[in-house]
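Hi C.,

You asked whether I'd gotten around to modeling the 170-residue construct. I have! Everything is below, sequence then structure, no commentary in between.
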Amino acid sequence: MVQDVFLSLFVDGGKALRAWDPARGMSLDGFVGMLAQHQAISILRNGRTSPWRDEPTETAALDALGETTLTPESVAISREKLQLLLDRVRETLSPRGLELFQRIVVDGEPPESLVAATGMTRDAIYQWKSRFARKLKELAEELETPGVSDPAIGSRTDQGDNQDPQGPEV
């Protein structure tokens, strides 16, 4: 919006700025401020250029989303679930998989640096990333299953993903 306002001051050879007349009693700073305010209001009123073009959400729909404030209990429960998930990931991944999991998922290392550091192809990196996403979803669903609170319950390791020498060994 700042750039749009700034641009509006110089449109048509600075026509808006050339309209300033010190004899009318307004300083240049005040005049530019007034023009900027009018342009900003115009942008916000115009539905096409407004940065807030989203449709309003009904109150009932917002209420249905539930309370969004974090309580100490919800934070503790979330941490426990994440720790269980991480424990399950450590149980199911190979050492190479754990190293790549740390670099891809936890550290968010870009694929270009992983290609250079590991010698793997970009496609292999993306394959690992995709399999990590699937594995995390699968393990999270497994942990949400009633009665499965111990990470040792229902432990499994996938077999058959080791055919590609550069591909994931999940």
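If it helps when you're writing up: The two ends are 47 Å apart (CA to CA).

Thanks,
B.
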